[in-house]
Structures are given as structure tokens and as C-alpha cells.
Automatic annotation (TrEMBL):
The chain crosses the membrane at residues 135-155, 161-178, 185-205, 217-237, 249-266, 286-303, 310-330, 336-354, 361-378, 390-415. It comes from Mycolicibacterium arenosum. This is Threonine/serine exporter family protein. The keyword Nucleotide-binding does not apply. Belongs to the ThrE exporter (TC 2.A.79) family. The keyword Mitochondrion does not apply. Keywords: Membrane, Transmembrane, Transmembrane helix.
Amino acid sequence: MTSRRARFLQSIRKEVPQALTSGAHDDDAEVAAMLREVGIALIECEQPTHLVAARLQAIAANYTQQQVRVVVLPTALVVQVGSVAYEVETVIQQTTQLNLASRIDAVAELAEVGAITPADAAREAAEARTTPPRFGPVITVIGYTITTVGFGMVINPTWASLWGYVFLGAVVGAIVMLGRPFPTLNAVLPVLAAAVVTLLASWFVADAANDGLLRVVSPPLVAVLPGLALTIAAMELASAQIISGATRLIYGVTQLMLLVFGVGLGVHLGDADLEPVQPSAQMGSWSLYVAVIVVSVGLYIYLSAPKGSLLWLMLAVGVALIGQKVGGLFMSPVHAGALGAFLVVPFAMLGARIKTSPPAIVMMLAAFWALVPGALSFESLSETAAGQGGVMALGTTVAAIFSIALGTLVGWSVLATINARLRRVAS
């Protein structure tokens, strides 16, 4: 029975690449160039700086015996190998494109076991950074619209608001797509999207859906909410990465302020009524499970996930959202995200070892999007700006962000400890 189980596990596991025979004797300049390309690509894929630094050190150990120093920041990377080889690189553009992240992770995995030459790793990482999205603008807008509907079913699952989510999601998706060819417009996109969505919602959606304005506009603004940035900032601060965490936190808060300004502008132009209203009839408890499927399909298209990863995205999003739901049974809704984040990490790391699965980075990015910490942040701050919240609303914002960050850190620490113990036992 034991041998049969071992053969089954062996048949579904990904094969571990074999290390090259050259060992740690590669040219230091080539090693530094490889670390530069792989490292900056990981930063552009929205990875925490302390994890990028640890991964680069693990890669370097396979190729050189020289001392390696790495300084990782949210927008820059400095690498020194020995006393001669130096490399400096800056981020061109942050991306949540999952097929690109998958290619970068594949190169990094090969380098972590020394199964690729430094020159080949640098070349493939540079090529991966130019990977185009899998879907065109129209399909991507459709994907974003589907994602908006899914998030609406998570945040505010009412029948009357569904058509509003479709309409407003398509509008924001079109705005985001129009801004992609012009990176310089990224600074004003949050204001523009928030103002347009609030204006349209106050004119056509909120009254027709018999719902509060802020509950209607939150799901469509998922793309411009800095929830992922704020969560990573909290992780970095908790890991003593003060410069990276503080700068990323300031960036996230600034984005939130721009969104709130855009909402305020839309409220003023549309003469919207922010008085609380009786919510429309809610969907049943089944809506969460349908939302898992809808969000997964939407993210698969909008984030350009790699081929064959849809089922795994559904599983990762399901673990996150259902874990959050279970956490809400014995914790406050604000803190329930910690359990979802905690469960996602081991699921993604262990699932990534199965042959048909995408890299763990793909599943975790999708799951963090599903937890939507920024949605709570945006709604709480908007309520405060409208005079409906206060210190408690701001406290909700901070608690929601740090609960997800804490769950991620604990999950990562527990899994790393177990893996280290298993390696010692095996050796």
C-alpha cells in the first residue's frame, strides 16, 4: 500500500530539474546580470521585497562562491557579486499579468536549483518581461466586467444591483484599457475612474438598484484599488523592511486618497444622495460559491492567466473566500481575511508541486485579488469623507489590511518551518 501511494504521488508531482555540472564557478558578471534580470522581473510582478531578496540569495548560491549583496526596493534593484560585478536596474512598469509572472517564476525555479546557465536565465527573464497579454482589449474588458459582477456578489450580493455591476464594470474596464498605451496617465486613472463611476451610479444605478451609492461603486473600482500594494506594504513592515514597506504604504494611501477625491468629485457633479438606504433583497448563502466561479473566470481573462490554470485559480480563490467566510464565524468580518490568507499560502505552495498546476505566484496573486482588502479600505475612507464614518471606519481599514498580511506571514512561516524540518529529516 505504501509503495502504491508513493508511486501515485510520484506520478502527479512535477519533476525537479537537474542541476548543471558546472557548479558555483560561473563568471561573476554573468551571475550579477542574471540576478538583475530575474530580480527586477519579480519586483515588477508585485512580489514582497524581502521574498525577492531571499530568492536571489538562494539562486546566487548555485553559481558563485563570492559574497552577494542585494538591495531590493519596490522600484529598484542593486546587486553586487564579489568586489567587481555590480548591477543596478529600475522598474519599467508594475504588472499583475499572470502569464508573465508564470514565465518569470519558471526561470527563477530553474535558477534556484542551478538547472540553467546565468546567460540563458538572464536572456529568458528579459524576454519574459515583454510577454504580451493573452487576450485583446475587448475580451479583457469583458473579463473585467465578469470580475466586477463576481466581486459584487461577494461585497454586496443583491439581485437589483447585478445589472449595475455589469454596466459600471464595463465602463471602468474600458477606462483602464484606454490608459494602458499611455503609462503617464496612470496617475490620473484612479480619479477619472472613480469620478465617472460615481457620476454614472448616482444618475442611473443607485436609485434604480435601491442601494447605497458606496456599495454600488466599490466592486467596479477593484482594478484601481491599491489593496494588493497595501497588503504587501504591511507584510514588508512586519518583516522589518522599513523603507520598502513605508514607501509602498504611502503609495497605497495616496491611491486611496485619489479615489476618494474622484468619488467626491462625482458626488458633487451628480448631486448624489449619500444618505443610508435600506439594502435591496440579498441573494442566498449560495451566492458566495457562485461568486468564486465568477471571480475566477473574470480574473483568468482580465489578469491574462496562463493556459490550463482556470481550475487552479478557482481552487485558490475558493480557499481564500471560503476561508474568509469560515473565519467570520469566530472572528469579526474585518479580521476574517486572516484565515483566508493563511490557508492560501500552503495551498498554493503545495499545489504548485503538482504537474498540471501553475506556479504558486499565480495562485496567490489571484487569491489576494479575491480577498479585496482595498475594497474595505476604499469604502471606509469614503464613508469618513462623507461624514458617515470616523475613527472606527479608519480602524476598519487598517485592521482589514493587516489581518490579511498577518495571515499570509503566518502561513508562509509555518510552511517554511515544516519544509526546513522535512529537509533535515531527509538528510
